[in-house]
Amino acid sequence: MPLSILITASAADGHMGPMLAAARHLASVGHRVRFLAGDRFAEPVTRTGAEFLPWPADGQVDHLTAAAEESGRGGIAALGRAVERVFIAPAAGQYRAIREAFEAAPTDVLVTEQAVVGAAVVTVDRRPHPPVVVCGILPMGFSSRDAAPMGLGLLPRPGLAGRIRNTALNRLVRHVVLRRPQRSAERVVRELVGGRLEGYFMDWASNADRFAQLTVPGFEYPRSDLPANASFVGPFMGASSRVVPPPEWWGDLDGRRVVHVSQGTVANLDLGELIAPTLRALADRDVLVVATTGGAPVSSLGPLPPNARVAEYVPYDLLMPRTSAFVTNGGYGGLHYALAHGVPIVTAGETEDKIETGRRVEWSGAGINLRTQHPTERAIADAVDEVLRTPGYRAKAQGLAREIEASPGLAGFERLLGEVVAGRSGAVPRAAGAGPTARAAGRS
Q1: Distance CA 146, CA 170 (A)
Q2: What is the pLDDT of residue 73?
Q3: What pLDDT digit, counting tens, does each position of 272-321 carry?
Q4: Do domains 4-234+407-424 and 242-405 have the same CATH topology?
């Protein structure tokens, strides 16, 4: 049965990417999809076949602006600032826009990513609302006795000592380091719906009907206390070649060993952090280095080594099958494109969520984590040499590729939505009409 689906996402390229893939798939199989997003994403949304609904001015903070002001700052304190400014501040405008969308048209299910705090308010709203399904587009951040808090970048520690450490750190982060964002989130919920936000605001997705983490268990720390509504569905990856054509130099890849380097779409204000040093580090290697600037002018890199090819964007669905190693600052989406094709990774990033993604690369054995935002040329060259010559890294990456291939993915996610709506049918009236509203896991 075709559903009427409302999707929401923060005004950030990395957050929009997987949600656009979901919108494209759901629209292509006949569901009505409306998409609340930032102003500059109107064209990408409409290209998916979804209806574009703009966030109000007070419901969006563009991450490009925030990234420019926080450039080079990492760690838990920077995470706290980002959470309060970029995610909590727009929550009231987001909540009102979501409610208006419910009233404007029948809505069977709200699909969102966890950074849309306006959607978090919906989950504690006593007024009737559709079911809420949350997509985990970042490393899993639920509080756990088996994992340190999100943002510290600490690897799991086994046994009782690890649980004692994690419990103490979770309390420290919630009640001291992120106390201000916690209180802000509680105030927003109280003012908007008169309710109370129970527990830690970073765990709000445990209140949703379902939480779908867009990875596989092999790339996430094990948790014995994972919320009951959570499941792994694998990454959402569309065919980027539909919207990003190959550059004119694409034929140069033929017969060459390719190393790809990228700083993603947000942390690319200073290409001297990773792209430029990688180009220099590999200039004398028998590889073709393909760099993407994520929208920054190619000319900002200056003269290029003979073995370098650069574009603002390239189609990852065509590039990754031809790539032997991926050098990245650790964006979650880019990592999964590489892992889905069994590509070993060298990661160097400490901002946003990248301190966590880098540790997961290290923990999974699929690559090398340089543990710095500013690696030296020597460190980059040595790491690339090691992942290319050591079969174990590719073997681990290929194991994750098989796990991703077997994951539910987009088709399974669609089934999840159907199960959620069917599970709530008749229990809660659907907004602006009558009918089903949301609970449920799912690849095309």
Answers
A1: 11
A2: 52
A3: 999 999 999 999 999 999 999 988 899 999 999 999 999 999 999 999 99
A4: yes
β-strand 230-232 against 308-311: which pairing, if any? unpaired
Determine the Cα–Cα distance for residues 79 and 353; give it in Å rounded to an integer. 8
Provide the whole-model pTM.
0.90
Contacts of 310 (CB under 8 A, 6+ apart): 290, 291, 292, 293, 298, 301, 304
**CA-based R_g, the chain, Å:** 21
pLDDT digits (tens, 9 = 90+) for 416-428: 999 999 987 533 3
> What CATH number belongs to 242-405?
3.40.50.2000
**Class of CATH domain 4-234+407-424:** alpha beta
- For residues 388-417, give the mean pLDDT: 97
Q: Is 35 helix (H, G, I), strand (E, B) or coil?
A: strand
Q: What are phi and psi of 218, to 5 degrees?
A: -70, -10
The amino acid sitting at 224 is S
Q: Where are the domains of the chain?
A: 4-234+407-424, 242-405
288-292/4-8 β-pairing:
unpaired
Check the CA dihedral 178-180-181-186 and report its sign.
positive
Could you tell me if 416 and 424 are in contact, meaning their C-beta atoms sit under 8 angstroms apart? no
Residue whose tokens read 């997987």: 18
Q: Rounded to an integer, what distance in angstroms lies between the CA atom of residue 424 and that of residue 131?
A: 7
